[in-house]
């Protein structure tokens, strides 16, 4: 770059100065290739400090042997020649050890980010160019956290890669609440793409969950009853023998070591009665009822659940008459037409609990999925607010939620969601899909869908006999703890597949059409519905954009189920596939948010426009008076 080119980059007509906060070497490289100049953040200070014009001039002369004319925008209301401070409120770069030991997951995350960014910075021409623009405000800021930018400076930065206030979309509690508003936007049943979810911190939703758990137990009992033939259990999944520590059987198979007391004979009849009552509620037969739901009062639920636990988890036997068997089949067939999620339910009634504001399977102390016996409480990985856990008993779910009360209750608010007991597996291994999408505006809403995505595998074969993270949590941050485990030799050792590899696998199964006809349309619809529901509670800022990562699970019928949406998804490559795809999605994001401004017909890579809302002008002008004035009528 010559001095003339530098002056042009700093001119108001073509100002191209950017700042990157976080481990984004690809963004830095792509912007430099476009001719942008980086204003680097300092390594050792928590905040960019202002310097006088004399200090800046002296340092320029020392580094460049002279200086050029200062051009571009300086921060208003600053002393003459002073540098605009970005007022970084958190530690950014620390190439030398601190005096005190880092504590907590955020500090550890910052340390990793700082190490990665420091390794990519070098004392070359870019350092000099960065030094020359230290008194300039960047007009493009790519950051891992929006809080790293001073609130007063944020409006003066033209383009930022983050939106404020995303909790309505990107926390588990917020997404659960936002999607309840779906009927206001689309006549779509929420239960067709989002597993049933409840916020246990709200009494109304907790009561709804209790009723849902009981009804699911009744349906599960009918399924179990149909698996019994002549009073004997049909061959079921056996827990694999394992010497791995912490491998506790969550649902042991029946044992004949000692006789058990017989079940009370009305168990199946009560399950049938409950399901018939539920069918009546689904058919709106109770629309004029003023009493509590019959599903809550028609049987003694505590006794019923204890009997169900014995059948589902202890292997107690059920004896059905031919008439009862036909009734079970008929009721389940009618329920299937009313309940879209019956296909993802198994017969063990597994529910998954998640701390509402955590990501990557973490809890307050970085806990992970609990290994528990169905008849014992187990030991949580954290005494308060462990990470994601699976439970099969109602009292366990409620007990865990109540354990996080008091002053920190809002920090560890629990959501409970129906676990997908019948997922599609590859080589008997569970996987999920990380799907990117880009929002470039909220008003009017504009969403871009990325055609490429990747699959994340677990480290051990899927089994409901063991509820351990290695089998059930697909997060890369969780599975990296199990690098030495290999579920199947056909699963890649890095446990990542591209969508093209998945499509090839579907073709081998004879379902090559499932990707384009079922999975992709389902993911697009789920993303659009979620974003539209959350938009009114998200901070909108012109010039901002954000790349999101949605996580989907695929059912046995190839239907995608939305699990959560992540803001600022990781771009750190964990495998060969992600190294390529993460680079591509960052490149294409810059094409959409930068290149299209100058050339609307330019290539945008694998992005496609998913939704663009028609602009609607406001009907009311600011300051419009709606007061009605008048006078009383006088009697003649």
UniProtKB/TrEMBL annotation:
Reaction catalysis annotation: L-glutamyl-[protein] + glycine + ATP = glycyl-L-glutamyl-[protein] + ADP + phosphate + H(+)
Residue stretches of biased makeup (Polar residues): 48-59
InterPro entries the UniProt entry points to: ATP_grasp_subdomain_1, TTL/TTLL_fam, TTLL_monoglycylase
Localization: Cytoplasm, Cytoskeleton, Flagellum axoneme
Superkingdom of the source species: Eukaryota
Principal subcellular localisation of the protein: cytoplasm
Name of a matching Pfam family: TTL
Family matches, as PANTHER family: PROTEIN MONOGLYCYLASE TTLL8, TUBULIN MONOGLYCYLASE TTLL3
Name of the protein this chain belongs to: TTLL3 monoglycylase
